[in-house]
Each structure stands twice: as structure tokens, then as C-alpha cells.
């Protein structure tokens, strides 16, 4: 681990002032469950680490009666596991991180900003996984866990966040604080596919931090997350889907959001699949059809065709789970 | 006089009872000190620079910058310019620094130039293996295979395989090493051989063997990978010397642990088997290969257990790969041989539309000398898993199956040797009545300490807490390495002999005072008494007080007079699984094991051995795989995130039954560490084939492979 300066501010203003203007210069520290591995593996080598945990206002979780939620970026993953019925997609995604240690140490902001688990990236071949002669390693390599959607560019890793698809399905907004003050982006727009290894996978400036996630009213929302995981013990989903539905009086779908996780460089919003549900009563067939549509544009790499099937099944099962 | 032979059933006070391991409390409370936990004053931290390339020549190494870094105390080149690296992770430079981060930073300051050479890291597809990587084939034949296949009613051909897995010890390999003066070295290694691990180090350092002191109280896993001092043990001791003899702590990082500190060879085979219409097996032919890295490996025994199939033809070829070298992994070659043999036979039974249990029973004489044991065990296991009630023809799906989740049952049988190793043991009876057992053995977590106390207490007619056991040090009487399931037979035999000799000496001392002769005495219930006459007795303490100041020390040996232990066991395992045919995910419902191991010293730790083997078995069947990247030659999952091990909720329900009593007990104790690891892969793979109606050829049974097999079959569940 390279030596770095450690700063522990107590306000968000101090924090952003301590963060650098370009990526890599400084790193924000929340629960540290990812950042520490990145530091120890020399994947990030900041000159300064800015600990956010001293900023007490960022760890609250508020759930007013209107069914909305304001979740501080430093709230633990465990805290969102306990949210009520309308937030089922979110709490199920949190529960899917089956390690109590990670759920208690890891924060919601950290879950959204954690770096990809692509094994070439984590072995030191860079975010876009290239060897020393610049050859891309993923296309001809072992890409069994890589992207099946949105993988036509150089980025072929999958976004690792399990909470992100749930937040997007629930139409959440992400509050960001920087030197210029506060701004807000839709959760769906927070994630970006980097075009170079020095970019990040989210729409933050290097000196901005996530402060809060605002989930609008979930009254009447039926939501669910279904993950295909090999093991019950802590394990990355091979594919996952979060859905949020509202139904009319005759149980027909009024609105639908379907978001896939762990299958693309960003959480993948399956617009067409969601549309296919509108006006329908949820049935096994309708859910399966949405599952098929969700992966209609999927493109397998050499070793991950099976993930197309898994993603499709995850969508089907999440929909059925949401209405059960 | 007391005799060596084991007491009969009914006369046993501790033997064969369910006794909790004596070191359980210190382990679960965190008080137990593993070598990894040893910290010494002024201790330095060692690190090793490893090659990132799988095959390369070292052109140059520049350590000057690292040497100059503050806090770095010694830097030593292990393999310098000209050295040909044969696998990623091979050792180049060792160093020690005042703390771990400094040592890690120092590694990064070392400049190495490599000349890269072509590598091979995967061998499952033999057609892609260059001829230069193939080692000479070995072949074997009995009977007339060609004729047998011609005359057979049913012939089945298949491909079966098992990728390389690693030992993945939770306590990684390593040691704390220091020079206590210019001629003496003290090591705290993590080792399976306390009494011999220092020998190579002594030779390398040109020190008399007696000048190296080894001590280890607890070990966090070895599984066959921790017999040697290892290159890092030698180099770190040299680094310690360069640093003025200061203690150096070096334990492998997790990535190195799974990359280079031991792997189980892969095994792949094309198999052809034949039977008559009535299910009689007539022929076996296999064309097998596998790799354990660079160097030769022996063929797994094909066909496994079914050695009396009348017509057999086998071929085996080892493949050289640029992968961290193999080490013995619990019952070397047997798990792979079981998977491939039992898989092919279960496919044959399915083709015959026979219940594999019936099929195995019908042919059981083809297993040879242990046929009766297997028959009894098969029937017992079938009862435990309710085979008759739950088994269905392949692909029909067992009871409880749904449209998407299919249930299946599978079985396997296995064998192992487990003969006793050589062992010396000192049994000391002190004048105050306390008893010590001292032995240079190690407790791999399996209950060796507990077994020693049980044998001594049983032999001396004392409660367990009367015995103080001291092990884990090479200054104690030498006992063998814990490998090959040889420990229980060795240590219990020598302890029995030592205890009985010590007791007879005590009888000689006290007989005159009791107005009798030694041959009339026995030790029962904490007393020395005239045989059959409890009125003429001394308490143990009173008896020992007659020793004066000199304790009795008796050296028990294995081998020695009378055979107290033997070798050769059989076991049966049956698995009940559910497979989600939409996701390819396999879940364990229930897993049963029936096992014999001769005379059981401690029923509880014996059962625990089998449970442990079953957990490891589920893990290697469903999850474990050393993923090697063709392009970079590196292991991609050198961590515990994608090198998956089962968690508690992944293993399902386990049941173990130990075969005991007549026919088993009189054989004496037989090693148990390895046999129950042999069948899980086969039983689980067979259960999956039974559930989904198609064979998934290769372990681990991951979703991609299960779905691919289903797709090949046509998607029908
Ligand atoms: C074996 C394993 C399995 C896992 N499985 C899953 C899984 O299935 N699903 C899943 O979602 N996660 C999984 N995780 C990841 C885990 O959830 C994350 O490590 C955790 O959420 C990160 O949170 P943290 O607070 O510890 O972040 P840190 O490690 O402190 O930070 C992570 C990154 O986010 C940045 N960051 C943190 N907070 C902020 C903020 N407020 N503003 C701006 N940037 C910030 C940091 O600078 C850093 O780059 C797994 C982890 C492991 C080790």
C-alpha cells in the first residue's frame, strides 16, 4: 500500500475541499470494504484518503409517511434491508449481500460507487482490461462473468452494485455534493460506461460525493429483486433483476420498471420489457415474455452465453415475486 | 499384567464414545495460537516477489532501490538472471522489512526484466495441447477388451473430468523463523510434520538437525500440502540471518496460497464401459490425462474400486502445464478416479434402465476383498437416504420435482489404505499421580490430542482430565507426518504400548505393598486393584506415591509388539440434490456417508472427520476451480471471492454412519482423514445426472455447465 495522507473531515464542505480535481489523486472512504482491497492491490494509489464517516448527517435513514425514503450515503447496507414493504426490491437486494460483516460495514453510497469486480481489472490490467501491448483481454479471455448487454464498447465488465438496479427501478434520485453545492441526478443517469481506463463508472466529478438517495413515494408500488446466485454464502449474483410495478383496480399493470444487474457495465434498464407488461395481468407467460424481451438485444461473449438465460429468468422471477 | 491388545466392547471406558475434542474451547474462544498468530519482539515481515509470467526467463533483477528503502532490513535474490520461470507466482526475491506495507512497497521497487516464453495453462482440451507438453503415456491391459465390447449387449461411452482445484488452507503456508544465536534456529511453521519439517532446513543451512527447534500448537488446514519446509521457509530463515537473526514472519498472501501452495491435479478421461443385458459389467476402457503443473503425475487408479472387471484397458498421459505445482490433496488421485469411474458406471446403469443401487449390488464381487463391507454399507446408506422411496429413473425427476426444479439421487463407493505411521511416544507417570503423554505429532484439527488422551486414559483406567498431552514440538519423541491417513493408527498404537508398559512398571512397584504380584493387578476406575477383587486396592494417587521421587517414563513405539492397527477401508456415499433447470444451480438436499475405519477411538471426532470431508466434497463438486487465463497465464480467481467455497447454508443436511462392532473393531484403528473425501464428486455428479437426465461431464457443476448440458440434451428437463 502506498503511503497516503489520511483526512477525517466532519462536514461535507470540508470533505469536498479535501478531494482532488482529477481521479486517482484522492479517494473517498466510506465503509472501506472495497476501497481497502483496491488500496492493498495497488489498483488505486491516492495521495490522500478522505474519510467520510465523520460527517454524521450522512448516515440517517428517514421514511416519512408518504412512503418515500431519504437514505444517507453513509447508511449501512443493513439499514436498507429493514425498510418496509414498498421497498421490497431494495431490501431484497440488500439481503442478497449475505455477509453480515459487509452489510454492516458497507454503506449505501459505497455500494453505488464500488469498483467493478472484473478479474482482469482486479489483477492490474486496468479498467478496460488490456495487456501491456494494448490487446483487450476480455473478448478472447475468460469472460464467464462479463457483460452480455451494453458490451459493444471497450468496457465489458459488469456493474457490481446490487442496490443500484433496485434504486433505479424505484425511480430514485441521487443527491451529490461538490464545491459548487448540491445537485441531483436520476439514479438511472448516475451510472456511465467509461471510454477510457482513467474514467469512472459513475457521473461524479472527482471532488464530488454522494450524500443521499431519495426514493419517491412507494405507496402502491410492488417491487422485488431476484438474484441468480450460485451460493447462499456471500456470492456475486451471476445475473439479477429488480422490478417495480403499480397495478390498477383490476390488477392490470399501470406502470412498470425493470432493471437488470450484473449483466452490463451499467445497471441495465429494460424499457421494452417493462412496456410489454403495461395493461396486462401478471401471469407466468407475461413475465416470461418480459424476460425474453429484456435480453432480446443481448450479445454473448465467447464464454458467457449462459448469462443471457439467467438474466431472462431473473426478470421473469422478479416480476412474479413482485406480485406474489 | 496389562496387555497391549485393545479392550473388548463392554470393557471400554472411553474408546469409541462420543467425546468432544479437548482443544475445542481454546479454538472457539480464540485463545488457541496458530503459527500465524505468533508475534515475536522485534519481528520483521517477510515478502516474496513472484513472477507475473507463467513462462519466462529472468533477464535481470535490480534490487538496489528496495535495499535502500528505510525499514527494509534484508533483500535476497532467490532466482536470478538466467532462471527459467515455469509458472506465474514462482519465487524471485525474498525480503524483510519492519512492517508489511513497507515490505510490500519494497517489492514494488524491485525491477525485473523478463523474456517471455510461450505457456500452456489449460489442458482439458487435449487437442489443443502441444506435443511437447505431453509426457509419455502409460498403458495397462487385462483380458480381451476388444472381444468383450464386441460381445456386450450394452456399451456406453462418455467424457468425464475434474478441473484443478487448490488446497486453499484457511491458515496459509508459512512460518515465523529466527536465529536464537549464531548456531540455533527456532521456527514456528504451519506444518503437517512437526518432527521432520526441520530436516531440509538443517541440510540447507548446514546446521546439525538438533540446532533447529520447531514448535507448532495448532494448524489451520493442510490437506496434504504442508509436509515440507518449502522454499520460503528456507529463504526466510536466510533472510533472518542477513537481518542479524531477527524473527521474520512470512505467511503467504491469499493469492499466493491458491496460486502456488498446492493444487490437486486435473483428471479427464474418455471412458467406454460394457455390460450384459442382465447388468453384469464386462469391460472397461479409458483414455485419461491430467496435469499437476510441471512434472510427472501418476495415473489415478482406473477403474476405481471395480478392479475385478474382467476386461480392462487403460491409458494415461500427464500433461506439463505452466501452473503452480500439485501437492498431495486428501487421498491423491482417488476423488478424481471415483468421479470418472462411478460416473461411467452410473451412465451404464442408466442405459440399462437399472437402478444404480441394484446395479452396484449385482456386481459387487467385482470390487474384490471388501465386497461384503460395500454391500452392508450400500444397504445402510440406502436406508438413510430412503433410496427406494426417492430414486426415479434418470430424467424422470425424484419426488417433489417441479417444472423447473428437478430432484435426483446419486451414489458412489470408495476405498483407502490408512496404515499406521511410525510413532514414538513417552508416557510418564509422576509420583503425584499426574500422567503426561508426550509426542512429536501434530493435531491437524482432527482430534489427535483428544485421541492421545483417550488411549492413555483408557489404558490406565483414568478419567480423561487426568492426562496431560504435549505435542507439536520436535524435541518430543518423533512421530510421523500426518499424511496418508496414517496418524490415528500410529499414535494410538505407540500410546497404547507406552501406557501399558508404564502401567506394568507401576504394578511392579506397588505389588509388594499390596501383598501380591504384578500379574494379579489391574487399573480400573482410578484404582489399582487385585484383578476381580475391589477390596484389595489402592487409589491411583496412593499407588503413584510409592514411586518415591522418580517418575515412570515408558517409550511406546509403533511398529511394536502385536499388531494394534491395520489398513484398508471402504465407504459409501449417497447424495440427494435439486437442480434448477432454468438457472443450472445445484442445491444439496441431503448427503449421507457410511464409513468404516476399524476400531473407533473417538466416535465424535471420527464423525466430524467425515462431515469435514463431505463439506470439502460439496465444495469441490459444485464450486472449486482454479481458473487459469490462456492469454496471461495467470490464475484469475486467486482470492476467496471467485475461488468459491461452500458456506453452511450451501451444504444441505448431512448424515454419517460409522460401521463399528464385530468385523470392524478387531482390526484396530485405521486412518479416516482421506477416504470420505473420495466419493462426494461422484455421488453428487451422479445425482445431478439422475435429476436432469443428462451428464454434466466436468466438475465443478457450475450453472454454465449444467445449462450447456441441458441445451445439448435439447432443453428437455
Ligand atoms: C466477496 C464480496 C462479495 C460481495 N457481494 C456483493 C453483492 O453481491 N452485491 C453488492 O452490491 N455488493 C457486494 N459486495 C460489495 C460490497 O457491497 C461493497 O464493498 C460495499 O458496498 C462498499 O461500501 P463501502 O462503504 O465499504 O465502500 P468503500 O470501500 O469505502 O468505498 C467504495 C468506493 O466508493 C467510493 N465511495 C464510497 N462512498 C462514497 C460517497 N458517499 N461518495 C462518493 N464516493 C464514495 C470510494 O471512494 C470507493 O471508490 C461484495 C463484496 C465482497 C468483498
Structure, explained:
- Chain A has 324 residues and is an alpha+beta fold.
- Chain A has a domain at 5-54: Uridine Diphospho-n-acetylenolpyruvylglucosamine Reductase, domain 2 (2-Layer Sandwich).
- Helices cover 28% and strands 19% of the residues of chain A.
- Chain A has helices at 12-18, 35-40, 77-81, 88-95, 100-105, 108-113, 119-125, 163-169, 187-190, 271-275, 284-294, 306-323, and strands at residues 5-7, 26-29, 48-51, 61-62, 69-72, 173-178, 181-186, 209-215, 222-228, 239-247, 253-261, 268-269.
- In chain A, strands 4-5-8-6-7 form a five-stranded antiparallel beta sheet. In chain A, strands 9-10-11-12 form a four-stranded antiparallel beta sheet. A three-stranded parallel beta sheet of chain A has the order 1-3-2, with no helix packed on it.
- In chain A, helix 2 (35-40) links the parallel strand 2 and strand 3.
- In chain A, helix 4 (88-95) runs antiparallel to helix 8.
- Chain A is globular, with a radius of gyration of 19 Å.
- The model of chain A has no long low-confidence stretch (mean pLDDT 97).
- Chain B has 717 residues and is of the alpha+beta class.
- Chain B folds into three domains: 35-117 and 173-251, Aldehyde oxidase/xanthine dehydrogenase, a/b hammerhead (Aldehyde Oxidoreductase, domain 3, Alpha-Beta Complex); 270-278 and 333-417 and 566-713, 2-Layer Sandwich (Aldehyde Oxidoreductase, domain 4); 420-558, Aldehyde oxidase/xanthine dehydrogenase, molybdopterin binding domain (Aldehyde Oxidoreductase, domain 4), CATH 3.30.365.
- The longest helix of chain B has 24 residues, at 487-510.
- The mean pLDDT of chain B is 97.
- The interface between A and B is medium-sized, with 35 and 33 residues.
- Bound molecules: flavin-adenine dinucleotide.
Amino acid at each position: 500500500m502506498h503511503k497516503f495522507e489520511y483526512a477525517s473531515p466532519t462536514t461535507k464542505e470540508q470533505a469536498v475541499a479535501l478531494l482532488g480535481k482529477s481521479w486517482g489523486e484522492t479517494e473517498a472512504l466510506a465503509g472501506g470494504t472495497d476501497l481497502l482491497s483496491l488500496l492493498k492491490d495497488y489498483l488505486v494509489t491516492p495521495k490522500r484518503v478522505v474519510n467520510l464517516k465523520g460527517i454524521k448527517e450522512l448516515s440517517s435513514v428517514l421514511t416519512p409517511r408518504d412512503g418515500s425514503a431519504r437514505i444517507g450515503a453513509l447508511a449501512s447496507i443493513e439499514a436498507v434491508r429493514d425498510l418496509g414493504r414498498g421497498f421490497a426490491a431494495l431490501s431484497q437486494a440488500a439481503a442478497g449481500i449475505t455477509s453480515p460483516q459487509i452489510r454492516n460495514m458497507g454503506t449505501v453510497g459505497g455500494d453505488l460507487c464500488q469498483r467493478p469486480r472484473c478479474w482482469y481489472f482486479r489483477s492490474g490490467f486496468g479498467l478496460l482490461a488490456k495487456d501491456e501491448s494494448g490487446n483487450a483481454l476480455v473478448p478472447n479471455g475468460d469472460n464467464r462473468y462479463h457483460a452480455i448487454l451494453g458490451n459493444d464498447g471497450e468496457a465489458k465488465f459488469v456493474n457490481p452494485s446490487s442496490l443500484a438496479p433496485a434504486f433505479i427501478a424505484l425511480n430514485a434520485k441521487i443527491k451529490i455534493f461538490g464545491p459548487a453545492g448540491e445537485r441531483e441526478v436520476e439514479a438511472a443517469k448516475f451510472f456511465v460506461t467509461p471510454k477510457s481506463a482513467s474514467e469512472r463508472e459513475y457521473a461524479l466529478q472527482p471532488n464530488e460525493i454522494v450524500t443521499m438517495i431519495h426514493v419517491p413515494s412507494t405507496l402502491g408500488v410492488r417491487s422485488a429483486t431476484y438474484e441468480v446466485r450460485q451460493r447462499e454464502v456471500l456470492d456475486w449474483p451471476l445475473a439479477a433483476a429488480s422490478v417495480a410495478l403499480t397495478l390498477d383496480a383490476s390488477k392490470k399493470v399501470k406502470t412498470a420498471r425493470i432493471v437488470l444487474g450484473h449483466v452490463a457495465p451499467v445497471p441495465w434498464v429494460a424499457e421494452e420489457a417493462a412496456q410489454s407488461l403495461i395493461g396486462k395481468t401478471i401471469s407466468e407467460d407475461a413475465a416470461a415474455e418480459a424476460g425474453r424481451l429484456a435480453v432480446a438485444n443481448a450479445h454473448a461473449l465467447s464464454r458467457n452465453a449462459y448469462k443471457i438465460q439467467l438474466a431472462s429468468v431473473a426478470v421473469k422471477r422478479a416480476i412474479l415475486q413482485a406480485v406474489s | 499384567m496389562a496387555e497391549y491388545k485393545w479392550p473388548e466392547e463392554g470393557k471400554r471406558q472411553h474408546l469409541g464414545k462420543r467425546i468432544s475434542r479437548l482443544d475445542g474451547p481454546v479454538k472457539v474462544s480464540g485463545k488457541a495460537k496458530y503459527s500465524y498468530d505468533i508475534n515475536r519482539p522485534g519481528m520483521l515481515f517477510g515478502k516474496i516477489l513472484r513472477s507475473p509470467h507463467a513462462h519466462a526467463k529472468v533477464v535481470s533483477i535490480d534490487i538496489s532501490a528496495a535495499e535502500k528503502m528505510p525499514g527494509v532490513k534484508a533483500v535476497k535474490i532467490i532466482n536470478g538472471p538466467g532462471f527459467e520461470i515455469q509458472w506465474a507466482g514462482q519465487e524471485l526475491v525474498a525480503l524483510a522489512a519492519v512492517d508489511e506495507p513497507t515490505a510490500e512497497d519494497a517489492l514494488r521497487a524491485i525491477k525485473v526484466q523478463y523474456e517471455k516464453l510461450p505457456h500452456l495453462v489449460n489442458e482439458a482440451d487435449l487437442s489443443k495441447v502441444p506435443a511437447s507438453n505431453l509426457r509419455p503415456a502409460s498403458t495397462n491391459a487385462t483380458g480381451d477388451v476388444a472381444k468383450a465390447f464386441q460381445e456386450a449387449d450394452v456399451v456406453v461411452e462418455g467424457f468425464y473430468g475434474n478441473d484443478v482445484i487448490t488446497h486453499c488452507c484457511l491458515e496459509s503456508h508459512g512460518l515465523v523463523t529466527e536465529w536464537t544465536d549464531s548456531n540455533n534456529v527456532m521456527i514456528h511453521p504451519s506444518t503437517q510434520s512437526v518432527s521432520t519439517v526441520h530436516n531440509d532446513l538443517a541440510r540447507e543451512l548446514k546446521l546439525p538437525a538438533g540446532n533447529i527447534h520447531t514448535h507448532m500448537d495448532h494448524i489451520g488446514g493442510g490437506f496434504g500440502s504442508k509436509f515440507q519446509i518449502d522454499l520460503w521457509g528456507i529463504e526466510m530463515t536466510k533472510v533472518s540471518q542477513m537481518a542479524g537473526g531477527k524473527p521474520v514472519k512470512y505467511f503467504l498472501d491469499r493469492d499466493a496460497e491458491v496460486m502456488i501452495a498446492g493444487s490437486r491435479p486435473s483428471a479427464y478421461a474418455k471412458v467406454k464401459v460394457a455390460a450384459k443385458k442382465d447388468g453384469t459389467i464386462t469391460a472397461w476402457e479409458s483414455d485419461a490425462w491430467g496435469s499437476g503443473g510441471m512434472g510427472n503425475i501418476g495415473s489415478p487408479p482406473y477403474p476405481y474400486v471395480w478392479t475385478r472387471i474382467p476386461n480392462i484397458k487403460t491409458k494415461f498421459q500427464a500433461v506439463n502445464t505452466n501452473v503452480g505445482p500439485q501437492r498431495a490433496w486428501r487421498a491423491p488421485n482417488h476423488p478424481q478416479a471415483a468421479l470418472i469411474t462411478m460416473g461411467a458406471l452410473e451412465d451404464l446403469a442408466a442405459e440399462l434402465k437399472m437402478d444404480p443401487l441394484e446395479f452396484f449390488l449385482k456386481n459387487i464381487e467385482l470390487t474384490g476383498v471388501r465386497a461384503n463391507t460395500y454391500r452392508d454399507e450400500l444397504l445402510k446408506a440406502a436406508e438413510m437416504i430412503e433410496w427406494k422411496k426417492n430414486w426415479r429413473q434418470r430424467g424422470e425427476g425424484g419426488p417433489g420435482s417441479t417444472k423447473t426444479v428437478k430432484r435426483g439421487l446419486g451414489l458412489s463407493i470408495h476405498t483407502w489404505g490408512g496404515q499406521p505411521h511410525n510413532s514414538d511416544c513417552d508416557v510418564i507417570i509422576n509420583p503425584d499421580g499426574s500422567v503426561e503423554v508426550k509426542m512429536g505429532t501434530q493435531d491437524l484439527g482432527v482430534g489427535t490430542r483428544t485421541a492421545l488422551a483417550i488411549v492413555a486414559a483408557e489404558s490406565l483406567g483414568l478419567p480423561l482430565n487426568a492426562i496431560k498431552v504435549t505435542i507439536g514440538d520436535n524435541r518430543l519423541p518423533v512421530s510421523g507426518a500426518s499424511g496418508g491417513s496414517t496418524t490415528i493408527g500410529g499414535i494410538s498404537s505407540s500410546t497404547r504400548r507406552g501406557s501399558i508398559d508404564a502401567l506394568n512398571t507401576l504394578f511392579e512397584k506397588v505389588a509388594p505393598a499390596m501383598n501380591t504380584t504384578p500379574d494379579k493387578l489391574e487399573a480400573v476406575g482410578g484404582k489399582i486393584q487385585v484383578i476381580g477383587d475391589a477390596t484389595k486396592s489402592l487409589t491411583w494417587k496412593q499407588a503413584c506415591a510409592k514411586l518415591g521421587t522418580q517418575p515412570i517414563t515408558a517409550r511406546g513405539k509403533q511398529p511394536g509388539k502385536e499388531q494394534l492397527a491395520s489398513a484398508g477401508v471402504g465407504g459409501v456415499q449417497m447424495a440427494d440434490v435439486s437442480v434448477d433447470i432454468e438457472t443450472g444451480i445445484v442445491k444439496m438436499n441431503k448427503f449421507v456417508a457410511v464409513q468404516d475405519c476399524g476400531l473407533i477411538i473417538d466416535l465424535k471426532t471420527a464423525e466430524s472427520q467425515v462431515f469435514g470431508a463431505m463439506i470439502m466434497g460439496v465444495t469441490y463438486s459444485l464450486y472449486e476451480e482454479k481458473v487459469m487465463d490462456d492469454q496471461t497465464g495467470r490464475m484469475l480467481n486467486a482470492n476467496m471471492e471467485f475461488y468459491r467455497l461452500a458456506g453452511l447454508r450451501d451444504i444441505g443436511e448431512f448424515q454419517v454412519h460409522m460401521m463399528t462392532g464385530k468385523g470392524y473393531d478387531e482390526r484396530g484403528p485405521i486412518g479416516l482423514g482421506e477416504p470420505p473425501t473420495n466419493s462426494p464428486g461422484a455421488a453428487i455428479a451422479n445425482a445431478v445426472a439422475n435429476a436432469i437426465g443428462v451428464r454434466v461431464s466436468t466438475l465443478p457443476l457450475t450453472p454454465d455447465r449444467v445449462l450447456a448440458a441441458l441445451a445439448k440434451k435439447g432443453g428437455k428437463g
